[in-house]
Write a structure and sequence with these properties.
The protein is α/β, with parallel strands linked by helices. Helix content is 37%, strand content 14%. It is built from 12 helices and 13 strands. It has a 7-stranded mixed beta sheet with strand order 1-9-8-5-4-2-3, sandwiched between helices. A two-stranded antiparallel ribbon has the order 6-7. Helix 4 links the parallel strand 2 and strand 3. Helix 3 runs parallel beside helix 4. The radius of gyration is 20 Å and the shape is globular.
Length: 364
Protein backbone atom coordinates (compact mmCIF):
# COMPACT_ATOMS: atom_id res chain seq x y z
CA UNK A 1 0.00 0.00 0.00
CA UNK A 2 1.34 3.45 -0.95
CA UNK A 3 1.98 5.80 1.99
CA UNK A 4 0.77 9.26 0.98
CA UNK A 5 1.96 12.41 2.72
CA UNK A 6 -1.59 13.69 2.20
CA UNK A 7 -3.97 10.70 2.00
CA UNK A 8 -7.44 11.12 0.58
CA UNK A 9 -8.92 10.49 4.03
CA UNK A 10 -8.22 8.75 7.33
CA UNK A 11 -10.80 6.36 8.74
CA UNK A 12 -9.09 5.39 12.00
CA UNK A 13 -11.02 6.97 14.91
CA UNK A 14 -9.31 10.03 16.34
CA UNK A 15 -10.72 12.32 19.04
CA UNK A 16 -13.80 10.09 19.21
CA UNK A 17 -11.82 6.91 19.94
CA UNK A 18 -12.62 6.77 23.70
CA UNK A 19 -16.34 7.35 23.07
CA UNK A 20 -16.41 4.61 20.43
CA UNK A 21 -14.62 2.17 22.72
CA UNK A 22 -17.14 2.90 25.48
CA UNK A 23 -20.07 2.46 23.08
CA UNK A 24 -18.80 -0.93 21.91
CA UNK A 25 -18.21 -2.10 25.47
CA UNK A 26 -21.72 -1.02 26.44
CA UNK A 27 -23.30 -3.11 23.68
CA UNK A 28 -21.16 -6.17 24.32
CA UNK A 29 -21.78 -6.03 28.06
CA UNK A 30 -25.55 -5.78 27.48
CA UNK A 31 -25.53 -8.70 25.01
CA UNK A 32 -28.29 -7.25 22.78
CA UNK A 33 -27.16 -6.81 19.17
CA UNK A 34 -30.15 -6.24 16.86
CA UNK A 35 -33.07 -3.76 17.15
CA UNK A 36 -32.56 -2.82 20.77
CA UNK A 37 -32.12 0.29 22.91
CA UNK A 38 -29.11 1.60 21.00
CA UNK A 39 -31.01 1.70 17.70
CA UNK A 40 -34.02 3.35 19.36
CA UNK A 41 -31.84 6.00 21.02
CA UNK A 42 -29.95 6.74 17.84
CA UNK A 43 -33.14 6.96 15.79
CA UNK A 44 -34.46 9.59 18.17
CA UNK A 45 -31.28 11.66 18.27
CA UNK A 46 -30.69 11.44 14.52
CA UNK A 47 -34.27 12.53 13.79
CA UNK A 48 -33.77 15.57 16.04
CA UNK A 49 -30.47 16.43 14.34
CA UNK A 50 -32.15 16.28 10.92
CA UNK A 51 -35.19 18.26 11.99
CA UNK A 52 -37.45 15.27 11.32
CA UNK A 53 -40.19 13.67 13.40
CA UNK A 54 -39.06 10.09 12.80
CA UNK A 55 -35.96 8.12 11.85
CA UNK A 56 -35.78 4.43 10.94
CA UNK A 57 -32.43 2.64 11.10
CA UNK A 58 -31.72 0.21 8.25
CA UNK A 59 -28.82 -1.82 6.91
CA UNK A 60 -27.49 0.53 4.21
CA UNK A 61 -28.26 3.75 2.38
CA UNK A 62 -29.24 1.66 -0.64
CA UNK A 63 -31.77 -0.23 1.45
CA UNK A 64 -33.06 3.08 2.80
CA UNK A 65 -34.05 4.18 -0.73
CA UNK A 66 -35.53 0.81 -1.65
CA UNK A 67 -37.53 0.57 1.58
CA UNK A 68 -38.96 4.06 1.07
CA UNK A 69 -40.08 3.05 -2.42
CA UNK A 70 -41.67 -0.14 -1.04
CA UNK A 71 -43.41 1.87 1.67
CA UNK A 72 -44.89 4.18 -0.96
CA UNK A 73 -46.07 1.28 -3.12
CA UNK A 74 -43.68 2.13 -5.96
CA UNK A 75 -42.52 -0.87 -7.99
CA UNK A 76 -43.01 -2.68 -11.30
CA UNK A 77 -44.44 -0.44 -13.99
CA UNK A 78 -43.31 2.75 -12.23
CA UNK A 79 -40.58 5.17 -13.31
CA UNK A 80 -38.39 7.06 -10.83
CA UNK A 81 -36.53 10.09 -12.16
CA UNK A 82 -33.04 10.44 -10.73
CA UNK A 83 -29.55 11.74 -11.49
CA UNK A 84 -26.98 10.15 -13.83
CA UNK A 85 -24.07 11.28 -11.63
CA UNK A 86 -23.91 9.59 -8.24
CA UNK A 87 -22.94 6.23 -6.84
CA UNK A 88 -24.86 3.66 -8.89
CA UNK A 89 -26.65 2.43 -5.76
CA UNK A 90 -29.23 5.21 -6.10
CA UNK A 91 -30.47 3.69 -9.36
CA UNK A 92 -29.92 0.11 -8.22
CA UNK A 93 -32.25 0.75 -5.28
CA UNK A 94 -35.02 1.60 -7.75
CA UNK A 95 -34.35 -1.62 -9.63
CA UNK A 96 -34.42 -3.62 -6.38
CA UNK A 97 -38.16 -2.90 -6.07
CA UNK A 98 -38.86 -3.44 -9.78
CA UNK A 99 -39.13 0.25 -10.68
CA UNK A 100 -37.28 1.77 -13.64
CA UNK A 101 -34.70 4.50 -13.01
CA UNK A 102 -35.05 7.33 -15.54
CA UNK A 103 -32.08 9.66 -15.79
CA UNK A 104 -32.43 13.43 -16.11
CA UNK A 105 -29.17 15.24 -16.88
CA UNK A 106 -27.36 17.40 -14.34
CA UNK A 107 -27.05 21.13 -13.88
CA UNK A 108 -23.51 22.06 -15.03
CA UNK A 109 -22.94 24.35 -12.02
CA UNK A 110 -24.43 22.42 -9.10
CA UNK A 111 -23.64 18.99 -10.60
CA UNK A 112 -26.97 17.84 -9.17
CA UNK A 113 -30.06 16.91 -11.18
CA UNK A 114 -31.39 19.67 -13.43
CA UNK A 115 -34.99 20.71 -12.66
CA UNK A 116 -35.57 21.47 -16.36
CA UNK A 117 -34.35 17.97 -17.28
CA UNK A 118 -36.63 16.48 -14.60
CA UNK A 119 -39.63 18.29 -16.07
CA UNK A 120 -38.79 17.04 -19.54
CA UNK A 121 -38.45 13.42 -18.34
CA UNK A 122 -41.91 13.12 -16.78
CA UNK A 123 -44.33 10.68 -18.44
CA UNK A 124 -47.57 9.00 -17.31
CA UNK A 125 -45.40 6.22 -15.81
CA UNK A 126 -43.48 8.58 -13.53
CA UNK A 127 -44.19 7.87 -9.86
CA UNK A 128 -41.40 9.70 -8.05
CA UNK A 129 -38.49 12.11 -8.29
CA UNK A 130 -35.29 11.08 -6.49
CA UNK A 131 -32.73 13.91 -6.36
CA UNK A 132 -29.28 13.31 -4.84
CA UNK A 133 -27.59 16.00 -2.76
CA UNK A 134 -24.28 15.17 -4.39
CA UNK A 135 -20.90 15.80 -2.75
CA UNK A 136 -22.79 17.56 0.08
CA UNK A 137 -24.20 20.23 -2.28
CA UNK A 138 -28.00 20.43 -2.00
CA UNK A 139 -29.96 20.02 -5.20
CA UNK A 140 -32.23 22.87 -6.32
CA UNK A 141 -35.03 21.77 -4.04
CA UNK A 142 -37.25 24.82 -4.48
CA UNK A 143 -37.62 24.06 -8.19
CA UNK A 144 -37.78 20.29 -7.80
CA UNK A 145 -40.37 20.49 -5.03
CA UNK A 146 -42.54 22.75 -7.17
CA UNK A 147 -42.41 20.22 -10.02
CA UNK A 148 -43.28 17.30 -7.74
CA UNK A 149 -46.22 19.14 -6.20
CA UNK A 150 -47.57 20.37 -9.53
CA UNK A 151 -47.41 16.86 -11.04
CA UNK A 152 -48.56 14.94 -7.97
CA UNK A 153 -45.32 12.94 -7.73
CA UNK A 154 -43.64 11.49 -4.67
CA UNK A 155 -40.44 13.33 -3.76
CA UNK A 156 -37.73 11.22 -2.11
CA UNK A 157 -34.38 12.75 -1.16
CA UNK A 158 -31.06 10.89 -1.34
CA UNK A 159 -29.14 12.55 1.50
CA UNK A 160 -26.45 9.87 1.69
CA UNK A 161 -23.71 12.47 1.12
CA UNK A 162 -25.42 15.38 2.84
CA UNK A 163 -25.79 14.87 6.60
CA UNK A 164 -26.85 18.22 8.18
CA UNK A 165 -26.89 20.04 4.82
CA UNK A 166 -29.48 22.73 4.25
CA UNK A 167 -31.07 24.22 1.14
CA UNK A 168 -31.96 27.90 1.44
CA UNK A 169 -31.79 27.47 5.21
CA UNK A 170 -34.09 24.44 5.34
CA UNK A 171 -32.72 20.97 6.22
CA UNK A 172 -32.32 18.61 3.31
CA UNK A 173 -34.58 15.64 3.81
CA UNK A 174 -37.47 17.89 4.85
CA UNK A 175 -38.70 18.70 1.34
CA UNK A 176 -39.97 15.27 0.34
CA UNK A 177 -42.05 12.54 1.92
CA UNK A 178 -38.91 10.76 3.15
CA UNK A 179 -35.13 10.87 2.90
CA UNK A 180 -32.38 8.25 2.78
CA UNK A 181 -29.05 8.45 4.62
CA UNK A 182 -25.95 6.28 4.52
CA UNK A 183 -23.48 5.72 7.35
CA UNK A 184 -20.85 3.98 5.22
CA UNK A 185 -17.47 4.66 6.91
CA UNK A 186 -16.45 7.41 4.44
CA UNK A 187 -19.61 9.50 4.97
CA UNK A 188 -19.70 12.74 6.97
CA UNK A 189 -21.30 10.67 9.74
CA UNK A 190 -19.81 7.23 9.28
CA UNK A 191 -20.12 3.95 11.15
CA UNK A 192 -17.43 1.29 11.39
CA UNK A 193 -19.28 -0.76 8.79
CA UNK A 194 -22.48 -0.46 6.78
CA UNK A 195 -25.54 1.33 8.07
CA UNK A 196 -28.34 3.60 6.92
CA UNK A 197 -31.43 5.48 8.03
CA UNK A 198 -34.66 6.95 6.72
CA UNK A 199 -36.17 10.19 8.01
CA UNK A 200 -39.77 11.27 7.57
CA UNK A 201 -42.43 13.46 9.18
CA UNK A 202 -45.18 10.95 8.32
CA UNK A 203 -45.92 8.78 11.37
CA UNK A 204 -47.89 6.17 9.43
CA UNK A 205 -45.12 5.85 6.83
CA UNK A 206 -42.48 5.55 9.56
CA UNK A 207 -44.43 2.69 11.16
CA UNK A 208 -44.73 0.94 7.78
CA UNK A 209 -41.01 1.37 7.10
CA UNK A 210 -40.15 -0.18 10.47
CA UNK A 211 -42.26 -3.21 9.58
CA UNK A 212 -40.76 -3.52 6.10
CA UNK A 213 -37.14 -3.41 7.35
CA UNK A 214 -37.93 -6.31 9.70
CA UNK A 215 -39.48 -8.81 7.31
CA UNK A 216 -42.90 -7.20 7.40
CA UNK A 217 -43.43 -8.37 10.97
CA UNK A 218 -46.30 -6.88 12.94
CA UNK A 219 -44.94 -8.66 15.99
CA UNK A 220 -42.53 -11.52 16.58
CA UNK A 221 -42.99 -14.27 13.94
CA UNK A 222 -46.16 -12.66 12.54
CA UNK A 223 -45.57 -11.30 9.02
CA UNK A 224 -48.44 -9.13 7.87
CA UNK A 225 -46.80 -8.00 4.61
CA UNK A 226 -43.79 -8.66 2.43
CA UNK A 227 -40.69 -7.09 3.91
CA UNK A 228 -36.93 -7.35 3.82
CA UNK A 229 -34.18 -8.02 6.35
CA UNK A 230 -32.37 -4.69 6.69
CA UNK A 231 -31.69 -3.59 10.25
CA UNK A 232 -29.14 -1.17 11.66
CA UNK A 233 -27.35 -3.25 14.29
CA UNK A 234 -26.82 -2.20 17.90
CA UNK A 235 -23.03 -1.86 17.61
CA UNK A 236 -23.20 0.54 14.68
CA UNK A 237 -26.04 2.50 16.28
CA UNK A 238 -23.99 2.93 19.46
CA UNK A 239 -20.96 4.08 17.45
CA UNK A 240 -23.11 6.55 15.51
CA UNK A 241 -24.58 7.88 18.75
CA UNK A 242 -21.04 8.47 20.02
CA UNK A 243 -20.13 10.36 16.85
CA UNK A 244 -23.31 12.35 16.24
CA UNK A 245 -22.52 15.09 18.81
CA UNK A 246 -19.28 15.78 16.91
CA UNK A 247 -20.92 16.05 13.49
CA UNK A 248 -21.57 19.81 13.65
CA UNK A 249 -17.90 20.48 14.46
CA UNK A 250 -16.72 18.12 11.75
CA UNK A 251 -19.03 19.88 9.28
CA UNK A 252 -17.57 23.26 10.25
CA UNK A 253 -14.07 21.88 9.65
CA UNK A 254 -15.07 20.59 6.21
CA UNK A 255 -16.49 23.99 5.30
CA UNK A 256 -13.36 25.75 6.50
CA UNK A 257 -11.09 23.48 4.44
CA UNK A 258 -13.33 23.97 1.40
CA UNK A 259 -13.15 27.75 1.80
CA UNK A 260 -9.36 27.53 1.92
CA UNK A 261 -9.28 25.40 -1.21
CA UNK A 262 -11.49 27.91 -3.03
CA UNK A 263 -9.23 30.77 -2.02
CA UNK A 264 -5.97 28.97 -2.79
CA UNK A 265 -7.16 27.53 -6.12
CA UNK A 266 -8.53 30.80 -7.48
CA UNK A 267 -7.06 31.34 -10.92
CA UNK A 268 -5.64 27.82 -11.12
CA UNK A 269 -6.00 26.00 -14.42
CA UNK A 270 -8.94 23.81 -13.52
CA UNK A 271 -12.68 24.11 -12.93
CA UNK A 272 -13.87 24.35 -9.32
CA UNK A 273 -17.65 23.84 -9.06
CA UNK A 274 -19.23 26.79 -7.23
CA UNK A 275 -20.88 26.66 -3.84
CA UNK A 276 -24.51 27.20 -4.87
CA UNK A 277 -25.89 27.17 -1.32
CA UNK A 278 -24.32 28.01 2.03
CA UNK A 279 -25.80 24.76 3.32
CA UNK A 280 -23.20 22.71 1.41
CA UNK A 281 -21.50 20.23 3.79
CA UNK A 282 -18.59 19.20 1.55
CA UNK A 283 -18.68 15.43 1.72
CA UNK A 284 -16.22 15.72 -1.16
CA UNK A 285 -14.31 18.51 -2.89
CA UNK A 286 -14.46 17.77 -6.64
CA UNK A 287 -12.61 19.67 -9.35
CA UNK A 288 -12.61 19.20 -13.13
CA UNK A 289 -9.85 19.15 -15.72
CA UNK A 290 -9.51 17.74 -19.25
CA UNK A 291 -6.03 16.63 -18.05
CA UNK A 292 -7.43 14.68 -15.12
CA UNK A 293 -5.44 11.48 -15.58
CA UNK A 294 -2.14 13.32 -15.94
CA UNK A 295 -2.88 15.52 -12.92
CA UNK A 296 -3.82 12.55 -10.77
CA UNK A 297 -0.62 10.72 -11.73
CA UNK A 298 1.52 13.77 -10.98
CA UNK A 299 -0.18 14.35 -7.63
CA UNK A 300 0.26 10.69 -6.73
CA UNK A 301 3.97 10.98 -7.51
CA UNK A 302 4.05 14.01 -5.20
CA UNK A 303 2.50 11.98 -2.36
CA UNK A 304 -1.05 13.33 -2.69
CA UNK A 305 -3.94 10.89 -3.04
CA UNK A 306 -7.00 11.77 -5.14
CA UNK A 307 -10.03 9.74 -6.22
CA UNK A 308 -12.69 9.95 -8.94
CA UNK A 309 -16.36 10.39 -8.01
CA UNK A 310 -17.57 9.17 -10.49
CA UNK A 311 -15.71 7.96 -13.61
CA UNK A 312 -18.74 6.45 -15.40
CA UNK A 313 -22.23 8.02 -15.52
CA UNK A 314 -24.82 5.61 -14.12
CA UNK A 315 -26.70 5.31 -17.46
CA UNK A 316 -23.50 4.04 -19.09
CA UNK A 317 -23.00 1.25 -16.55
CA UNK A 318 -23.58 -2.19 -18.13
CA UNK A 319 -25.98 -3.07 -15.30
CA UNK A 320 -28.31 -0.27 -16.44
CA UNK A 321 -28.45 -0.96 -20.16
CA UNK A 322 -31.66 -2.96 -19.93
CA UNK A 323 -33.34 0.20 -18.62
CA UNK A 324 -32.90 1.95 -22.01
CA UNK A 325 -31.37 5.07 -20.43
CA UNK A 326 -31.54 8.40 -22.24
CA UNK A 327 -28.40 10.30 -23.18
CA UNK A 328 -27.06 12.70 -20.55
CA UNK A 329 -24.32 14.73 -22.30
CA UNK A 330 -23.52 16.99 -19.35
CA UNK A 331 -23.03 13.94 -17.15
CA UNK A 332 -20.69 12.48 -19.78
CA UNK A 333 -18.64 15.69 -19.84
CA UNK A 334 -18.36 15.91 -16.07
CA UNK A 335 -17.49 12.25 -15.48
CA UNK A 336 -14.67 12.46 -18.04
CA UNK A 337 -13.03 15.35 -16.14
CA UNK A 338 -13.94 15.19 -12.47
CA UNK A 339 -11.73 14.10 -9.58
CA UNK A 340 -11.78 14.75 -5.84
CA UNK A 341 -9.11 16.39 -3.71
CA UNK A 342 -8.51 15.26 -0.11
CA UNK A 343 -10.95 16.83 2.34
CA UNK A 344 -11.82 15.46 5.78
CA UNK A 345 -12.16 17.01 9.26
CA UNK A 346 -8.80 15.75 10.53
CA UNK A 347 -6.83 17.52 7.79
CA UNK A 348 -4.61 20.37 8.83
CA UNK A 349 -4.51 23.73 7.12
CA UNK A 350 -0.96 22.84 6.06
CA UNK A 351 -2.35 19.77 4.29
CA UNK A 352 -4.81 21.94 2.36
CA UNK A 353 -2.03 24.37 1.37
CA UNK A 354 0.17 21.46 0.31
CA UNK A 355 -2.52 20.03 -1.98
CA UNK A 356 -3.53 23.40 -3.41
CA UNK A 357 0.09 24.39 -4.01
CA UNK A 358 0.78 21.16 -5.89
CA UNK A 359 -2.34 21.61 -8.01
CA UNK A 360 -1.37 25.18 -8.89
CA UNK A 361 2.14 24.15 -9.92
CA UNK A 362 0.81 21.36 -12.12
CA UNK A 363 -1.85 23.50 -13.81
CA UNK A 364 0.26 26.62 -14.34
Amino acid sequence: MTAFRVPFMRLVPGEDHPAIDAAIRRVVDRGWYVLGPEVEAFEQSFARACGAAHAVGVGTGTDAIAIILRGLGIGPGDDVITTPVSAAYTALACMMVGARPVFADIDPRRLTISPAAVEAAITPKTAAILPVHLYGQPADMRAITAIAQARGLALIEDCCQAHLATCEGRPVGSFGVAAAYSFYPTKNLGALGDGGAITTNDAALAAALKRIRNGGQTDRYHHGEMGVNSRLDELQAAILSARLPRLAGWTAARRAHAASYRRLLEGAGLEVPPECDAGHVYHLFPVLSPRRDDLQAALRADGIETLIHYPVPIPRQPALQAQSPAACPEADRVCARIFSLPLYPGMSEDDVRTVAGAVRRLTA
